[in-house]
Amino acid sequence: MSLVNYSDSETEKNENENENINNIKNNSNNSNKNNNNVKKEIETIQNLKQIFDIQTAPFIKDDFEKKVYIAPTTKELHFNPRFEALYSDVQGPKLPFDKDSLNLPLRNCPTGFVEKLSINNVSFDQQFNNFNNFGFTYDPSSSFQSGQYSGLVGKIQTVDNKKIIKKRERNLQDPSSDTFIGSWGSKKEDNITENTIETTDTTNTTETKETKETKTNNKDNNSKQTEKKDKKSTNDKESNSSDSSDSEGDDNEDKDDKNTDDSKNDNLNKRRKQASHPNAVSAGSENEITIFHGKEERDYLGRTYINIPTDLKADVHHEAFLPKKRIHTWVGHTKGVCAIEFFPRYGHLLVSSGFDAKIKIWDVYNNRQCLRTILGHNKAVRDVHFSPDGLKILSTSYDKHLKVWDTETGQRICSNKLRKMPICSKFFPIRDWDVLVGCADKKILQWDTRSNQIVQEYDQHLGAVNTITFVDNNRRFVTSSDDKTIRIWEYGIPVVIKYISEPHMHSMPAITLHPSTNWFVGQSLDNQILVYSTRDRFKLHKRKRFTGHLCAGYACRISFSPDGRYIISGDCDGKLWIWDWKTSKVYKTIPCHNSVLIGCEWHPIESSRIATAGWDGAIHYWD
What pLDDT does 2 receive? Predict the structure, then answer.
């Protein structure tokens, strides 16, 4: 048996706690010593690195948004950057020998990067014209403040230069000024020295002397010619009086022959007088003359009147408006006007033909004067048309001649004399060397202007052919005749596809195609306009007809507005009638001419302007 010492529990606990406290103090003293040693070692290592290691770039703190690179070609962003970060310059090193590889993502054109800028068409055209005319325009990247020129680009003109430009414009229109050149001439400086003025005075005096001498010589020649004509006429009278007792029947035949010869001689004399014009040039033969009404045919850039102005843009159709007043009147035909037509797609020129056997080309935009006169027919020119590109003019006359003219020079390209009288003609829109001609002998001829031969004949009508109109993407054409029928043909095949004839029908001397190409309209001689579809059946639209005007006996032309909302026609009283296409109601009637209004044309681009031609010899322009 062993003895157990039962000591106090409290005393034992106190002793154990004291031992633990002593142990902790000893450990803390040892750790402090170790930490001090570690710090000393770290300091020595850093000092050695500063001595022996390479010094790198210092670390600079910066924001996150400034470090982000946004390429110009990126289209999606997954965070919200600031405005400065979006439009900041591209920074960083570039390789000097490999420029293209770095700049490829930044280029969208061969010369660099082009940014898109939204700008109105009207303001763009205005700035474009200002830069071409005056050499300066507004800067689109900066806002323009009134009265300041900080927002301009180019050669900025001062106030004095602007006044000089205005003077030049006035001088171009004022023929009395010394710097008058004309609408197609090059601009000259207004500063004219005294020497130049003296030289002009001397040249004027010499010119006046020369003109006086030429006038006196012409008078002497004219007096001699009149004396010779008087002697010939007296001899002819004596011979006619002696021969009159022989046979009266032969005299009647001789009179007819003399009348025809006299008419030919009168035409030749007129042509000779017109050939004395200083700008008259022969257009192919002695009887064909072209006259340019101006000083210079080409401007300083070598352009002629056939060049399209930069302001005009084709195939931009605006909403059509009805005209209210007359803007201009072209006067030049001595007799009635037969036909007019605008230059295709642009309308900066207008061609007209008349009973005076003249073809005239008019300016529509600049000074609105007569640019050229073509004298190549002996009788009235019934029809005139531009080619699809506007470089040629086709004329049909009562002298049985078809002629093709150059619009720029007025020279005759080719001509053809037919056996019967041609009434209408049209260029084939796809090939402008093919021409379709409707004749009085009930035939339609296809004329190849290159070989000057008749290639095809379409012979089905029972009367004179009045109109030719192309439909169905120029694959077919519609013809009307005095036999009161309408026939549809396939181009190149002389077989009728569709034959339209009703007991109530009248002849249609004018047919026009709607701008939508789904309908064509015919001027019926019972004082109404009928509508037919251009689809396979070519049906009459019975509910749509336009009435109210008087056109019986006259081939009054029909025209449409560019958007197809309005239809216009003339009548025998000289009035212009305007109908609504949808409702067939009369919108407006305008008294235009003193006699028959035979032709009317709506401008292809300016949708509020109309040209009308009448038998009073005038051509009016309305807006």
Answer: 46
